[in-house]
Specification:
By secondary structure, this protein is α+β, with helices and mostly antiparallel strands. The protein has a 5-stranded mixed sheet with strand order 2-1-3-4-5, sandwiched between helices. α2 packs across α3, α6 runs antiparallel to α7 and α8 packs across α9. The protein is elongated. It starts with 11 loop residues before the first helix and ends in a 7-residue tail after the last strand.
């Protein structure tokens, strides 16, 4: 049955307009993006198949063009449209971080980190360099590792802080394994970087661990900073 044949209060688009986007499931939101289904499948059915195939929206967003196009009904045009939507979301969040105090927008920081790091298959260590008003100057990937670990060198972090003329930094790295809990090595590294950066008057405001689509873990909230 086509979605147009559904009762109006069950159609995803109409429900979004009446109840807001947060009321919809992942598949229903994706169905609105897809607009149409394929023979034998409504847009919602197709969206459910996509989410089921990839396991989550995060993994769907991270799929390459060939992997995405391998799904019946998908192709390069839909892939390009989806990537454009994701990039617009990243840029909108970055605009908020540039114009506002990061400490006043914790949700935006978490969303930005999740969009950038949540789906990566390897570990990376990134820095969000901030000015004296805690506004974003720049973000950069400092180190890239394997599936399970990466090597971080405090000297290089300090060098980049000075190059950026940063007053503060928010650190983040991802756990591709999906477990967000900080290891002893994570905590030791954080203390070492905090001490090293303090020598050049750069404050470490927080360190986040990003694991899949879960809310990134904050060292500051855990009392680990």
């Amino acid at each position: 049955m086509a979605i147009t044949d559904w009762p109006e209060d069950e159609r995803p688009r109409e429900r979004l307009l009446k109840q807001g986007a947060a009321a919809l499931s992942d598949a229903e939101l994706l169905a609105i993006f897809l607009r149409v289904g394929v023979r034998g499948q409504s847009a919602v059915d197709l969206a459910r198949s996509l989410v089921g195939h990839f396991g989550s929206l995060t993994r769907l967003f991270a799929a390459g063009p060939a992997e995405f196009a391998a799904i019946h009904g998908m192709g390069n045009a839909k892939y390009a449209q989806l990537q454009a939507v994701i990039e617009m979301a990243r840029r909108a969040l970055r605009e908020e971080l540039v114009t506002r105090d990061l400490l006043s927008t914790p949700a935006a920081v978490r969303d930005w980190l999740r969009l950038h790091l949540g789906s990566l298959p390897h570990e990376v260590f990134v820095a969000l360099w901030l000015d004296a008003q805690n506004r974003l100057i720049a973000h950069e990937t400092l180190f890239t590792g394997t599936l399970t670990q990466t090597s971080v060198y405090p000297r290089e972090v300090v060098k980049q802080a000075l190059t950026r003329n940063a007053a503060a930094v928010v650190l983040a790295h991802n756990h591709p394994s999906g477990a967000a809990e900080p290891s002893d090595a994570d905590q030791l590294l954080t203390r070492g970087l905090k001490d090293a950066l303090a020598l050049v008057d750069v404050k470490v405001l927080d360190h986040f661990i990003v694991a899949g689509n879960a809310a990134p873990l904050s060292f500051a909230e855990r009392g680990l900073i």
